[in-house]
Every structure is written in C-alpha cells, then in structure tokens.
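[step 3/7] inverse_fold.run input=structure_tokens len=250
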C-alpha cells in the first residue's frame, strides 16, 4: 500500500533541522545557527508551538476525509516525545486518545533501538475503532510507528492506521494509509541523503552529555566543542524551565 501525504509545507536543505520548545530563547537558537554557519552548516530551527498549530489545522478535517465518526477514531501518542505533541494539540480534545509506551535508546555511533508497548482500551478486541491516528514530533526512520502497529494491529481488526507529525521525511511507513505533517524536509542536493532532524528536547533528555557529544561530533567539523559547550551552558539550563507534563496527556 502506497502511503498518501498531506503536508502543509516542504523545505529543502542540505543542513540540519532542530525542533525547539518555547522555553529555548530565540537568542540561543541564533547562537546555535551562527556556530553551525561558521562550521559550514546551515541550521534550521522551528518552534514546537508553530508546528503544533500547523498540524492541528491540517487534521481538522481528519474524520471527514476518512469517512469515520469521532467516536470511531482513536489518537495515539507514543513515548515521551509525543507528550509534547499531545500537550500542544487542541485537535485532540474532541477525540479519545491514549498515551502508549515507546522508547528510543540512543547509543553513540549506532542506530537507535526502538521498543514499544501495547495500546489499552476497555475492550480486549476493539472492533468499533475504524481509524487510528498515531502522532509524534518527528517521523524520521518510521521505526517507532511501524513497530507500534505491528504489535497492536490485532486488537483493532477494523481500523485503518494513519500517522501525523510536526516534521517528517518521506517514508513508506508499512501498514499506514496516510501521513499528515506540518513540515516535510527533503535534501536539497541528493535524493539519497537524509537531512538530520532532531528535537532539542530529545538531545536534552535522552542519554545526557554523551548523546549530545555524539550529535556535535557527527554534524560539526571544526566547532563541535563550541556547539557542545554552548549547549551545556545555556540550552540545557533553559530546557529544564519548560512546563511540567500535564496528566491529561496520559
């Protein structure tokens, strides 16, 4: 099944892409961009709030487009990164939604390892759900979403699976019919290359300084230490001032 795309905006770049929570100041983002520029890289940054509003607008006709009633749809937010998507979404408030365990384990110089949990509803087999929409901040390799469906599809025999994200690259996403995204990122010079897309929240939260050092070393030639020092000194301190996670997102 070939996936259908519903995208608000497309960006082509050969640089880096970062998603920033609103607690990260525009001044700090400018400094990171300057370090990247001096190192010969272009760094694009997008605030979570802007991406969230764009995705909500894109999803406002979700039920009409897929021929289902709201009570026949289920929204799923996988893992810690999707909590930010849940918190920033107004669209979710008129739907039934679930938070499900999903974790990416990051190891320097290795591909992340993904584990996912089960989606629990009141019924062991829920044949009344006809559409499942899985929402995350970034869909990069698509591993999390594919594994989530593989583990849970048997529980929802009548459901068609859809995906949504703030930022994505083009992926096949096996088992999903539609991909909704605020922003599609493509490489500007080589279709075979992938633009690195990362969330500042992930870099701050998952794996600590070792992961941030691996990121800086991988993507910066001369100024990896400058990037890392500023990140540790300023960005991490700003990130810990973010609002607490709302219980309503679980």
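[step 3/7] decode complete -> sequence:
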């Amino acid at each position: 099944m070939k996936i259908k795309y519903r995208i608000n905006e497309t960006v082509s770049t050969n640089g880096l892409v970062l998603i920033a929570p609103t607690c990260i100041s525009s001044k700090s983002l400018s400094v990171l961009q300057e370090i990247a520029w001096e190192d010969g890289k272009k760094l694009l940054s997008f605030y979570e709030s802007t991406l969230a509003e764009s995705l909500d607008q894109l999803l406002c006709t979700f039920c009409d487009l897929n021929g289902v009633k709201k009570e026949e749809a289920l929204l799923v937010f996988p893992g810690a990164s999707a909590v930010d998507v849940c918190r920033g979404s107004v669209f979710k408030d008129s739907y039934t939604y679930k938070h499900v365990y999903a974790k990416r384990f990051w190891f320097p110089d290795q591909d992340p390892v993904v584990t996912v949990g089960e989606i629990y509803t009141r019924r062991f087999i829920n044949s009344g759900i006809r559409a499942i929409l899985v929402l995350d901040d970034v869909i990069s390799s698509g591993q999390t979403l594919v594994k989530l469906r593989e583990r849970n599809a048997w529980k929802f025999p009548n459901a068609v699976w859809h995906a949504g994200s703030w930022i994505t690259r083009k992926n096949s996403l096996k088992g999903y019919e539609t991909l909704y995204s605020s922003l599609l990122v493509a490489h500007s010079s080589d279709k075979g290359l992938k633009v690195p897309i990362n969330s500042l929240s992930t870099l701050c939260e998952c794996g600590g300084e070792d992961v941030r050092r691996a990121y800086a070393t991988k993507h910066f030639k001369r100024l990896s230490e400058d990037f890392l020092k500023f990140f540790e000194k300023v960005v991490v301190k700003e990130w810990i001032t973010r609002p607490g996670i709302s219980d309503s997102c679980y």
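[step 4/7] annotate
The two ends are 31 Å apart (CA to CA).
Confidence is low (pLDDT under 50) at residues 245-250.
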